[in-house]
Amino acid sequence: MTAQANLGTRLDPWYDHYAARAAGLSASEVRALFAVASRPEVVSLAGGMPFVAGLPNTVVSASLERVMTEHGPQALQYGSGQGVPELREHITRVMAAEGITASPDDVVVTTGSQQALDLVTKLFIDPGDVILAEAPSYVGAIGIFRSYQAKISHVAMDAHGLIPAALEERIVELMAAGETLKFLYTIPNFHNPAGVTLTTDRRVEILEICRRHSILVLEDNPYGMLAFDEPAPPALRSLDDGVIYLGSFSKTLAPGFRIGWALAPHAIREKLILANESAILCPSSFSQFVISDYLDNTDWLTQINTFRGIYHSRKNAMITALEDNLPSLSWTNPNGGFFVWLTLPEQLDSKAMLPRAVKELVAYTPGTAFYADGGGRQNIRLSFCYPTEESIALGIRRLTTVIRGELDL
Ligand code: PMP
């Protein structure tokens, strides 16, 4: 028995009883950070919390009141496992704003897109199956994939997103090694954590590669509507209706509602509804009615534009602070979303440096959180969504002190 296992048995009498899949459940580095980063004196560039104060309280309370007056009994009741029909109708209009044509019948409402990710993984993954994902990838997806005992194979990306030739090469390699490839998980727009966007040409190429090798594509698009200048390129789902598409109200409205959705090809949709019912019976009726009312009665596109403006200014503040303080380093300059991906000098280790940063009252997420294979030591994810422009500038100055200190400058 290893020292680790020994410790486990002493602290937890049920240690030997857990299912093998429980071994995949470990606190993410982001989660461990939240406690420290939430101290008021720390500038947190760590979590990806949307700036919910950008949404007027009065707008939400008006919706709450109307829902209770007009739909009280239904909003407080269990509902359909697929989701409230009115909301699914609205969701098709939201997706139309991103160029996707779909029927409300093919939408499954979930408890955030996080749960949609969990359901899709549950439906497709047996222990040992391979999921292809960008290098780096969303920490919350890696956690789910691990919990279903998937092997995660990271595929290289660059400033234009996932590299098609690298994907093709990896697929061929894994197939030759007798691995079972199940799906490609991709965040094509304003990537979390890399901040890059997949070009239109590459989208077409990647879909072609996946079709040719019979690999399902799982497109995760919570940030697509948060473009700063030009709108995001067409969704993969708008180019190929075999794609499973995940959307969310967490970044365009508020994450507290916990409402996201999956748009899936017919047969998969049926399985998703069954899996949803089995996991949660139904998504929150209350949240669904409130969001439906909000979409009915407010100019939601204008609200999204307000968020875009706020995030754009904050992104600019971060890029300016990086240019002023750390001109010799490199970073991505996103055209939307929440995140900048910073590359440190080779001799630094983002994970090892974190305690020193917290001592300097700045928090970030080490790149290692976004790799299943130990990569990312030379990277940092910086979030600009939540702190003010002044805090961002202060945070980057503090980070500069830390990096200079590590380099002994
Ligand atoms: N996918 C990505 C890429 C994310 O960044 C997030 C939230 N951080 C989610 C999915 C989950 O979002 P939610 O469950 O709030 O819809």
UniProtKB/TrEMBL annotation:
GO biological process terms, alphabetically, are: alpha-amino acid metabolic process
Write out the entry's keywords from A to Z: Aminotransferase, DNA-binding, Pyridoxal phosphate, Transferase
- Name all Aminotransferase class I/classII large domain ranges: 58-398
- InterPro entries linked: Aminotransferase_I/II_large, Class-I_PLP-dep_aminotransf, PyrdxlP-dep_Trfase, PyrdxlP-dep_Trfase_major, PyrdxlP-dep_Trfase_small
UniProt keyword annotation of Transferase present: yes
GO terms of molecular function: DNA binding; pyridoxal phosphate binding; transaminase activity
SUBUNIT field: Homodimer.
Per its record, how is this protein called by name? DNA-binding transcriptional MocR family regulator
The source organism is Klugiella xanthotipulae
